[in-house]
Amino acid sequence: xxxxxxGAFGTDGDALVERFGQSLESDLRFWRQDVMGSxxxxxxxxxxGILTVDESQRLIGGLEAxxxxxxxxxxxxxxxxxxxxxxxxxxxxxxVAGKLHTARSRNDQVATDTRLYLRSRLPELQSSIKxxxxxxxxxxxxxxxxxxxxxxxxxxxxxxTLGFHLMAHFWALQRHGWRxxxxxTLTAYSPLGSAALAGTGFPIDRxxxxxxxxxxxxxxxxxxxxxxxxxxxDALHALAALMIDLSRVxxxxxxxxxxxxxxxxxxxxxxxxxxxxPQKRNPDMAELIRGRTGRAIANWxxxxxxxxxxxxxxxxxxxxxKPPLFESLDLAADALALTALMLEGAKWxxxxxxxxxxxxxxxxxxxxxxxxxRGMPFxxxxxxxxxxxxxxxxxxxxxxxxxxxxxxxxxxxxxxEALAALKPExxxxxxxxxxxxxxxxxxAQLRRADKRLKAPGFSSPY
Length: 462
Ligand code: ARG
What we know:
Layout: H1 15-21, H2 24-27, H3 31-47, H4 53-69, H5 81-93, H6 106-142, E1 147-152, E2 155-161, H7 162-187, E3 189-190, H8 206-212, E4 217-218, H9 222-227, H10 230-257, E5 264-265, H11 284-307, H12 322-344, E6 347-348, H13 350-355, H14 364-373, H15 378-395, H16 404-410, H17 418-421, H18 424-429, H19 439-454
Parallel strand pairs: 3-4
Antiparallel strand pairs: 1-2, 5-6
């Protein structure tokens, strides 16, 4: 393996040590960011008179040639991407390549590369979030009158609409977009020019390199800049949190597509058959999203565990921040696109949803509310309706089976029109408090969501 630091070492490296220590495999992800960082550094060295303008230009020319030829021409018998780029540069521009590393270290380089790479992925993830939000919003608009059962404790609670249910996921996604925007805010500061840990005596201009690379400004402390990986930790948290919500959507699709619920049929393209049971339509994509969410959570835990006992100053341990970060980024991107695909092709079975609400007593609260609106204390109304539901259960009927005479006998306080309130449609569509499933309230919610969706980026969590 070719190295950048042979001077003080006698023997050749051990193959196992080299294999265990290399990061080239994962570094190749950000080869471009590594070269861009070097271009900014080389330009600044020339502008500051640390290198001659001619030297600086020859370095930049070589680095631009590497950008143009792509990663295929980079040597692979090296420890990391920084070494690979420098060796390739020497092949292209000769000895002057050895001047590129003036006033910098791989420690500030790798922190810079990781930040640049992470920042390059965030816009694409955010637009995938918006795309999924768009699918949800469109479906929610279509299904704003589709009544379905709502649950608490996984027990029938109150009727609402499919549109209302789906919009809950819209807002979860809005928060994730906003979290990723915050990750970018934190990541947008430059470590470059911190050198190994404590800066340099060369008259470098960290503001110039920060600006060229699109950072807000240099991180004010070189030791912090080279040691900190909290931006990656925040990214892993945001990605895990996003996956947790996508996993919950998946879990619903798994449950709802089964015969017990039968609320939805997933498209052929996102389901698979069984090699033995011909009737099967397995929701594999939803299951895999649910399952791999474990990896996204583990990736946050892995980096947190790596960081927790590190004294300040670069430690090689942090080399391993990258594979989990890359994996979680890829996973979230795929899971977002797959969830959009699943929801876009889903066939919703309104009839079945409606039918499962027969005799489920989920409009009991509406009856109690009606009594309370006539002046009965809600506690008392709750008790009266409790007795009504018990009587119904004893007779094996549902609330909707009550006749006017039944009701007059069981709850003489209830007015005649109470029976109408026991219809799930009426119950769901009448709840117009802010954030409720009623048509009026939903209209306001949908309008707000549309505004958020059309605005660029994610400036607000709601
Ligand atoms: N591959 C290393 C990493 O990812 C690059 C920095 C190496 N620095 C060093 N002093 N060995 O962290």
